[in-house]
């Protein structure tokens, strides 16, 4: 999650909830340029700890495509490969999964991401070659499913990420009990 001085202004590590909900919100503020390999080093351990803490019976995963490289408003450098590994990891937990699309401002890459993530959810292999259709010209210049990372520098040092991860894990340890909702 990119934290910054723009709407809605959320995502800071200190955004942990309030009142009876204190420590129930989890945010991992990222700096510009995070790439697939770096993202994977935080996604898996953080989500593992969140799953251990919350013990969910189901997961809703929103896949915001504004984290993809080249997004008009985004500032990350993720590819479909990195996005897909996150979906694969959550799917591997074998919990009921509701997969949702999310933001993204370079529409051709949003369509690519949602196509790729739907295929992963369905355990289907799909071609990198895009089929010809009425919108084919929008997917140039390469007309492929996958996108390549840019040369954007990754401003997320391992020291920074480790510091955030330690604080986030400390916050999770502060939960008085496993969160849950009773249905009546």
TrEMBL record:
Domain Histone deacetylase span(s) in chain numbering: 1-119
A single GO molecular function term of this UniProt record: histone deacetylase activity
Gene3D superfamilies the record matches: Histone deacetylase domain (3.40.800.20)
Pfam families on file: Hist_deacetyl
Domain of life: Eukaryota
UniProt xrefs under SUPFAM superfamilies: Arginase/deacetylase
Protein name (Swiss-Prot/TrEMBL): Histone deacetylase domain-containing protein
């Amino acid at each position: 999650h990119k934290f910054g001085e723009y709407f809605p202004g959320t995502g800071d590590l200190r955004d942990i909830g309030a009142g009876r909900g204190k420590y129930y919100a989890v945010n991992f503020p990222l700096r510009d340029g995070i790439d697939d390999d770096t993202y994977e080093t935080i996604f898996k351990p953080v989500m593992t700890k969140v799953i251990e803490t919350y013990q969910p019976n189901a997961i809703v995963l929103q896949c915001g495509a504004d984290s993809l490289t080249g997004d008009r408003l985004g500032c990350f450098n993720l590819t479909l490969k990195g996005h897909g590994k996150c979906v694969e990891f959550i799917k591997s937990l074998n919990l009921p999964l509701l997969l949702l699309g999310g933001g993204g401002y370079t529409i051709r890459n949003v369509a690519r991401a949602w196509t790729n993530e739907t295929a992963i959810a369905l355990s289907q292999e799909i071609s990198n070659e895009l089929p010809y259709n009425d919108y084919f010209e929008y997917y140039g210049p390469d007309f492929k499913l996958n996108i390549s990372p840019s040369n954007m520098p990754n401003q997320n040092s391992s020291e920074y990420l480790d510091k955030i991860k330690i604080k986030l894990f400390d916050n999770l340890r502060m939960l008085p009990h496993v969160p849950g909702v009773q249905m009546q």
